[in-house]
Write a structure and sequence with these properties.
This protein is α/β, with parallel strands linked by helices. The protein has helices at 22-29, 42-45, 67-79, 94-106, 120-126, 164-169, 171-181, 183-190, 193-197, 201-221, 237-246, 253-271, 278-288, 299-307, 335-345, and strands spanning 2-8, 12-18, 36-41, 55-58, 87-92, 112-117, 134-136, 139-143, 151-154, 312-313, 316-324, 327-334. The chain folds into 2 domains: 2-162, Rossmann fold, CATH 3.40.50; 224-345, Dehydroquinate synthase-like - alpha domain (Dehydroquinate synthase-like, alpha domain). The chain has a 7-stranded mixed sheet. It has a 3-stranded antiparallel sheet with strand order 10-11-12. The longest helix is centred in the middle third of the chain and has 21 residues, at 201-221. The N and C termini lie far apart (46 Å).
C-alpha cells in the first residue's frame, strides 16, 4: 500500500491511496459528511462491497456519459436529501468518474466527491486530475469543468475481475507517462510485460503509483490547463480522441490513444522534433501489450474531429511532441498543416 497527496489551488490537498481496500477507506471517510450518494454502473455494482450510501445505477461506458444521466443523478440526489455537506462517491471506470465529478461540481454549486476507479485505465489516469465532462454533438468531453476529487482510492482487487482486453487498455496511458516524462517508468513497463500479463500485484502497484505521481506533478503545476504544462497529458489524444469519435466510440480509448501516439510520434519525426526510433519503440511495446488494433476509419471524420479539438486556438493547435523517450516539448502548428500530416502519417486512415 502506498499513498501521497497533491495540492489543488481551490480544493486544498487531495489524498491518493494505491492498493487500499475501498470499503474500509470509504467507511472512515463518510463520517466527515452529512450524507452520501454512491454512483456506479450496473456492470460494477455487484462487485462493490461498500453499502453505507444510497446507490444510483447508471449506464456503462460512453452510453451513459451524457447530460441526461447527470440530470437523473441530480434528481435522485435531491430525493435522497443530499445537501451541500454531503459527498458523491463514484465507483467505476473513467466514464462513471467523469459523470460523478461533473455532477458534483454543479450540484448545489458544488459538493465533494471521491473517486474509486475500477478499471486499469481509470486507475492510472481518469481518476486523478479533476477534468470532468460529458460527451455531446459527437465530441468527447465537450461539456465539463475542472473540479478535483477530495480523495482517490485505488483498490487493486477490482483488476482481478476485468476481461483481458479491458485490463490491458489502461497501459496505453502508463506508456504515455513513460514516453513523455519518465524514462524509468517506460523501462519498467517495457521490461516487465510478462508480469503485466500475469497481473503481478507488486508491479501493478508500482506502475499505477508511478503514473499517478507523474500526473499529479503536472496537475499541480497547471491545474486549469492555462500554462502549457498540462498539455503533455494530451499526448496521443489529439489523434486518439478523433479516432474514437470517427468510429462512434467502437475503438477503445486505450487502443485509440496507442494508435494516436504512434501517429503523433511519426509526425514529430517528420517535423524534426522526435528521435527517429520513438515510433518503433512505441509500436513494439504496444504490440507486446496487445494494444495495436488493425482498423480502418474514415479519413474525413478523423480530420473533422481534429479540426474541432479543444486545444485549437484560432488557426493553430498547441500540442505536446516527444523529443526522446522521457522528454517532450510544446509545439504550435497550423491546423491545416497538422491535418495534412495526419493524413500522410496515420496508416490506418481509409
Amino acid at each position: 500500500m502506498r499513498s501521497f497527496t497533491y495540492r489543488s489551488r481551490c480544493s486544498g490537498e487531495v489524498r491518493v491511496l494505491v492498493n487500499y481496500p475501498h470499503a474500509d477507506e470509504l467507511s472512515k471517510l463518510i463520517d466527515k459528511y452529512t450524507g452520501c450518494i454512491m454512483i456506479t454502473p450496473s456492470s460494477v455494482s455487484s462487485l462493490v462491497s461498500f453499502n453505507k450510501c444510497p446507490r444510483i445505477i447508471i449506464k456503462d461506458g460512453e452510453e451513459g456519459k451524457d447530460i441526461e444521466t447527470v440530470l437523473d443523478i441530480i434528481k435522485k440526489s435531491i430525493g435522497n436529501s443530499l445537501d451541500r455537506g454531503g459527498v458523491m462517491i463514484g465507483i467505476g471506470g473513467g466514464s462513471t468518474l467523469d459523470i460523478t465529478g461533473f455532477t458534483a461540481a454543479i450540484y448545489m454549486r458544488g459538493v465533494d466527491y471521491v473517486n474509486v476507479p475500477t478499471t486499469t485505465l481509470a486507475m492510472v489516469d481518469a481518476a486523478l486530475g479533476g477534468k470532468t465532462g460529458v460527451n455531446a454533438v459527437g465530441l468527447k468531453n465537450v461539456i465539463g469543468v475542472v473540479k478535483q476529487p477530495s480523495e482517490i482510492i485505488v483498490d487493486l482487487t477490482f483488476i482481478k475481475t476485468l476481461p483481458t482486453s479491458n485490463y490491458l487498455d489502461g497501459f496505453s496511458e502508463v506508456l504515455k507517462y513513460g514516453v513523455t516524462m519518465d524514462k524509468g517508468l517506460f523501462n519498467k513497463l517495457s521490461n516487465n510485460v510478462d508480469k503485466v500479463m500475469s497481473k503481478d500485484e507488486g508491479l501493478l502497484e508500482d506502475l499505477i503509483y508511478g503514473s499517478l505521481v507523474n500526473k499529479a506533478r503536472v496537475v499541480e503545476a497547471d491545474e486549469y490547463d492555462k500554462l502549457g504544462v498540462r498539455i503533455v497529458l494530451n499526448y496521443g489524444h489529439t489523434v486518439g480522441h478523433a479516432l474514437e469519435s470517427a468510429s462512434m466510440f467502437s475503438i477503445s480509448h486505450g487502443k485509440a490513444v496507442g494508435l494516436g501516439m504512434v501517429c503523433e510520434s511519426s509526425i514529430g519525426v517528420k517535423l524534426g522534433y522526435t528521435a527517429s526510433d520513438v515510433p518503433s519503440y512505441l509500436t513494439e511495446l504496444l504490440s507486446r501489450l496487445n494494444l495495436i488494433q488493425g482498423i480502418k476509419v474514415n479519413t474525413d471524420s478523423v480530420l473533422r474531429a481534429i479540426a474541432g479539438d479543444k486545444k485549437k486556438s484560432g488557426d493553430f493547435l498547441n500540442l505536446p511532441m516527444v523529443t526522446e523517450i522521457g522528454d517532450w516539448i510544446k509545439v504550435k502548428i497550423k491546423v491545416s498543416e497538422y491535418l495534412r500530416l495526419v493524413r500522410d502519417s496515420c496508416t490506418y486512415l481509409a
